Amino acid sequence: MLFNGFSRRHFARIAAWSALGISTNSAEASQAGTSKEASRENGLAARGRAAGFPSGFLWGTATSAYQTEGAVNEDGRGPSIWDRQAHIPGKIADRSNADVANDSYHLYKDDVQLMKALGAKAYRFSIAWPRVFPEGTGTPNPKGLDFYDRLVDELLANGIEPFATMYHWDLPQALQDRFGGWMSRETATAFAEYAGHVAGRLSDRVKQFFTINECSRLVDLGYGAGVDAPGLTLAQQELNQVRHHVALGHGLAVRAIRAHGRAGIKVGPAENMVICVPAVETPANIRAAEIATRELNAGYLTVMLEGKYTDAFLAYAGKDAPKYTAEDLAVISSPVDFVGLNVYMPYHYVVAADDAPGFALAPFPASFPHMESDWLRIGPEAMYWAPRHVAKLWDVKSIYITENGTSAIDRPAADGQVYDVDRIMFLRSYLTQLQRATSEGVPVLGYFLWSLMDNFEWSDGYEKRFGLYRVDFRTQRRTPKLSASFYREVIARNAVA
Ligand code: BG6
User: Which residues contact 392 (CB under 8 A, 6 or more apart)?
Assistant: First the structure.
């Protein structure tokens, strides 16, 4: 969906460039010097491809609370910023909201059977903070976690491992009203209290927790572009402060989850990193893509994994830099057990440059292909480079692909079936790149396909469909698309089908 001529992801991309004062024009100039190196490195293409994924590779699907649960007024749930946003005229493309969504709050047993039919062994879902603390803080709602108790039991009874995300953007509205949401440190503290409470209650059965889904998008689109809730368009200093508070919230939650959870639980972020792909796979371009990855993720993965903001980030921010303490950085970089990566598309194709910062970003030609969502550029190699950069730059030993998938038009054919061969093409090509990564030893342990079923796609409403199962939102009927058969085959073979 376009907003004043920019798609949401284009905004994020431009924001990432401007964060470092990088222009795309420099890309052409440095491109010329790379062709010799490219031909020297042709041997890279000869890399062997293993027959399949490592044994024990975990195949799953993903959804989030606000996008699927519905039941927004049941069992003491408080309002969230997304309830508020979805009811503001003009914010959602099809004028819908998620008051009912997939009604998974009631239909979760059916949903678990959909996963089982795929042969999936893991499910990534999120917990709705406003169900647990309707006011954001204070006394927990006694019924707040009952739904997740039931869901977790149902998953385990069906041999599916639960992976819970603590925050997938549905902030209790009360915290927005009281503190301006993530504009205040109070929200980071409240988040940790909530996350600790959840871990205390669920970690007898849930062993893997993600803290925050996509810090980058919630900051840039929620507080920068005003497209996602809470719909703010802050100035740069305030935006940098929000970014810092979100990172702080992640770190505080890591500590709280460990403090209140059972021994042996694992925790990490689920980030939509700015994925930098070497435009041509030469050693110089690969190095440039690594530098770019570190710099363009400075406010998120870099600070979480290094415990400091990069010099370039601080220099560019100047007087707008966030205010923080050394203790904040120690909290933000609390050790994690794994890194989750949501991989949809390459953010940049990178070429080496002699001048600082050592890389240039190739401009995207207008003819670059995308899927049904205009932001979703088709660049399967993002699936190889994202985990490879994370493993190499930060020595991360365990990575999950926490989201990957695509929207498609998905119109049922005359026989009622959805022959979504475009989604299959997309998944096959991304999974081939993931297999390239695992066969080279990049430590990816599992993959969660977004999404199990069509759901409420934020400001696109129900117009964009990402599911393996088609959902008729009038009847709540779920029907497998052809891609569900594809994914079932992938899982059964543990290899790209
Ligand atoms: C991811 C989010 O960024 O993108 C998901 O974590 C979302 O929640 C998915 O559904 C697709 O994004 P959009 O904007 O098309 O709904």
Answer: 290
Each residue's pLDDT tens digit, 415-474: 999 999 999 999 999 999 999 999 999 999 999 999 999 999 999 999 999 999 999 999
- Give the angle subtended at the CA of 182 by the CAs of 219 and 145, to the nearest 5°: 105
User: By CB neighbour count within 10 A (0-12 exposed, 13-18 middle, 19+ buried), where does 26 fall?
Assistant: middle
Q: With 70 as the cut, is the pLDDT of residue 2 above it?
A: no
Residues 29/361, Cβ–Cβ less than 8 Å: no
Q: Which pLDDT value is given to residue 431? A: 98
Task: Determine contact, residues 338/396, Cβ cutoff 8 Å.
Answer: yes
Q: In the predicted model, what is the mean pLDDT of residues 370-380?
A: 98
User: 403 catalytic, yes or no?
Assistant: yes
3-state secondary structure of 333: coil
Ligand 1 centroid, distance to 95 Cα (angstroms): 18
Range with the lowest mean pLDDT among 1-5, 158-162, 178-182, 216-220? 1-5
Average pLDDT, the chain: 92
Specify the pLDDT at position 37: 46
Q: What is the pTM of this model?
A: 0.91
Query: Which entry of 214, 271, 281, 372 is annotated as an active-site residue?
Result: 214
Residue tagged active-site, from 69, 290, 381, 403:
403
The residue whose CA is least distant from atom 7 of ligand 1 is: 457
Q: Is 73 exposed, middle or buried (0-12, 13-18, 19+ CB in 10 A)?
A: exposed
Question: Taking CB atoms and a 6 Å cutoff, what residues make up the pocket around ligand 1?
Answer: 64, 67, 213-214, 217, 272, 342, 373, 403, 450, 457-458, 460, 464
193 is catalytic: no
Residue 51 pLDDT level (bands cut at 50, 70, 90): confident
Ligand 1 mean position, distance from CA 150 (Å): 26
Cα–Cα distance, 155 to 480 (Å, whole number): 20
User: How many CB atoms are located within 10 Å of the residue 497 CB?
Assistant: 16
Nearest-atom number in ligand 1 for the CA of 217 is 3
Neighbour count for residue 473 (Cβ, 10 Å)? 16
Confidence tier at 247 by pLDDT (50, 70, 90):
very high
**Calculated CA dihedral for residues 163, 469, 479, 2, nearest 10 degrees:** 130
**Cross-strand pairs, 167:** 212
pLDDT tens-digit series, residues 122-139:
999 999 999 999 999 999
pLDDT of residue 110: 98
